[in-house]
Design goal:
Elements: H1 7-38, E1 46-50, H2 57-64, H3 77-84, E2 90-98, E3 102-109, E4 114-118, E5 121-125, E6 131-135, E7 144-147, E8 151-153, E9 161-162, H4 165-180, E10 187-191, E11 198-202, E12 207-211, H5 216-226, E13 236-239, E14 245-250, H6 263-276, E15 279-282, H7 285-300
Parallel strand pairs: 1-3, 4-7, 7-10, 12-13
Antiparallel strand pairs: 2-3, 4-5, 5-6, 8-9, 10-11, 11-12, 13-14, 14-15
Length: 311
């Protein structure tokens, strides 16, 4: 008759079993790891690049340092992403494995939109202020010129550092609304030298007067409705200082900034507006269209002086 094991012996036997199982697990893990990392079964045959329009696939592949024939599991995705993001026009990167033989690189591009005077040249950025290039000549680029912002520092792939962050935030927010409304590409220059007298020029030369930076989203919304309804030429203007009473006209000189006036001064301003051929454009789109039509008829019949107003 066998002697029963003591509690201590049972513990030793249990511990020995656990050690054997752990050792077998390590052997299995090492075998699988060797299979994944050191056999040709998982060597990359295809590298796919998506989302690129501005940057050539070859440039992205060169930056990634991924090559066909490399083991798919030996890719350091974090290092690859960091390397590709050094391309200024790349704003985001996703690296994914498509087992067993394919790697996909998905990129999010950004494009040059703005330029600012900087040192003896210009800094080129996207619409959010990310620096894409430093150039001496921007005449052939067709970008939006922004004035009134003092730049302290500009480094490629980083946001510009500015003297006045409040003004910078206002500019970026305004540009974001313009882009959302599909108007940013129509802008030639934006002038923020005085935040109580902000104005833009369209590519066709029309001056867009926003005045103060309050209610910019509403003013830009009104602008998007008004633009298709007026004839825009070099020297014309759209005054959105009071967006509910938008004024359109053509002046040899800029229209005066709107200030509080006594009744006699308002009458004088009204006479000046009449002489310049300016007219009020109501916020209501249908009424604005009627006003624009009336303006065309008036111009055809001899350009009678006067203003058309509608509440």
């Amino acid at each position: 008759m066998t002697k029963p094991m003591s509690a201590k012996q049972k513990r030793k036997r249990k511990l020995a079993r656990m050690r054997r199982r752990f050792f077998l697990f390590l052997l299995l893990f090492a075998a699988i790891l060797s299979l994944l990392l050191f056999t040709p079964w998982f060597n990359i045959k295809t590298i796919e690049v998506t989302g690129n329009e501005l940057i050539a696939k070859e440039q992205i592949l060169e930056a990634s340092a991924i090559s066909e024939g490399a083991n798919i599991f030996r890719i350091n995705k974090r290092a690859v992403k960091k390397a590709i993001l050094k391309i200024p026009e790349i704003d985001g990167v996703t690296i994914s494995r498509r087992l067993p033989l394919k790697v996909r690189i998905s990129v999010l591009e950004t494009k040059p939109v703005l330029y600012f005077p900087y040192l003896s040249g210009y800094v080129i950025t996207n619409e959010k202020g990310k620096v894409l290039a430093l150039k001496d000549d921007i005449s052939s680029l067709g970008l939006l010129n922004i004035t009134g912002l003092e730049i302290k520092n500009a480094e490629i792939c980083e946001k510009i550092t500015v003297q006045d962050m409040v003004k910078f935030d206002i500019i970026i927010e305004t540009l974001g609304v313009l882009q959302e409304k599909g108007l940013l590409d129509q802008m030639r220059s934006g002038h923020f030298d005085d935040l109580s007298d902000v104005y833009f020029y369209l590519n066709d030369g029309t001056k867009i007067i926003f005045g103060k930076t309050t209610e910019m989203e509403y003013k830009i919304s009104v602008l998007s409705n008004v633009l298709p309804m007026v004839n825009r030429t070099e020297g014309s203007y759209i005054d959105l200082t009071t967006p509910s009473r938008t004024v359109y006209g053509t002046l040899d000189e800029e229209p005066p900034a709107e200030t509080e006036q006594d009744p006699s001064a308002e009458n004088t301003a009204g006479d000046s507006q009449a002489q310049s051929g300016a007219e009020d454009i109501p916020a209501n789109a249908e009424t604005a269209e009627a006003v624009a039509g009336t303006s065309d008829e008036s111009a055809a019949s001899g350009g009678e002086e006067g203003t058309n107003e509608s509440d």
